[in-house]
Amino acid sequence: MLLNTYLIFNGDCRAAFEFYQRCLGGEIAALHPYSEAPEECAQDVPPEHLDKIMHARLEVDGQVLMGSDTTPACPAPYEGIKGAHVSISVDTPEEAERIFPALADNGSVVMPLEETFWALRFGMLVDRFGVSWMINCERQQAPS
């Protein structure tokens, strides 16, 4: 089994995924606007929404982050991304110190990146797109 994170945006999915690629590296493997969808799928999408993203996929070190823009066809209004964090585990404090400020740029720091009892570095932030992140560089655990 493989679990992946799928984020829903309110019209800025393309900008978010381009930002995440700059911060995390990797490759944007998909960035499909609604205009590319088959007619039967796109027929209910208003013309002003055709340039919004129907599916995005960022691949980083064998991991996948996916997302899309919400559509006017959704039964409920967009309320943001709530109740979840995207968690990134890194191997070195230096990698945490590179990624954390990049993602925090024009966002807000919830918990500064610092050493904790379980991690060499741990921090929490909300990025400029309203996505909550946790960056974690765990300590080596002694075998039990």
- As a percent range, the share of strand residues is 35-45%
In CATH terms, what is the architecture of the largest domain? Roll
Mean pLDDT rating: 91
How many domains would you count in the coordinates? Answer: 2
User: Would you give the CATH topology of the largest domain?
Assistant: 2,3-Dihydroxybiphenyl 1,2-Dioxygenase, domain 1
The 3D shape can be described as elongated
The tally of strands reads: 8
Largest sheet entry: 4 strands, mixed
Distance between the termini: 27 Å
Residue share in helix: 10-25%
Order of helices and strands: EHEHEEEHEEE
Q: Numbering strands along the chain, what is their spatial order in the largest sheet?
A: 1-4-3-2
**CATH class of the largest domain, please?**
Alpha Beta
Low-pLDDT stretches = none
Number of helices: 3
Structural class: alpha/beta
Radius of gyration: 17 Å
Tags for this model:
144 residues; alpha/beta; 2,3-Dihydroxybiphenyl 1,2-Dioxygenase, domain 1; Signal recognition particle alu RNA binding heterodimer, srp9/1; 2 domains; four-stranded mixed β-sheet; 3 helices; 19% helix; VOC family protein; PhnB-like
Polypeptide structure, described:
This protein is an alpha/beta fold and 144 residues long. It has 2 domains: 5-69, 2,3-Dihydroxybiphenyl 1,2-Dioxygenase, domain 1 (Roll); 86-138, Signal recognition particle alu RNA binding heterodimer, srp9/1 (2-Layer Sandwich). Helix content is 19%, strand content 37%. It has a 4-stranded mixed β-sheet, with helices on one face. The chain has a 4-stranded mixed β-sheet with strand order 5-8-7-6, with helices on one face. A hairpin with a 4-residue loop joins strand 6 (108-114) and strand 7 (119-126). It is elongated and about 55 Å long. The two termini are 27 Å apart. This is VOC family protein. Residues 3-135 form the Glyoxalase/fosfomycin resistance/dioxygenase domain.
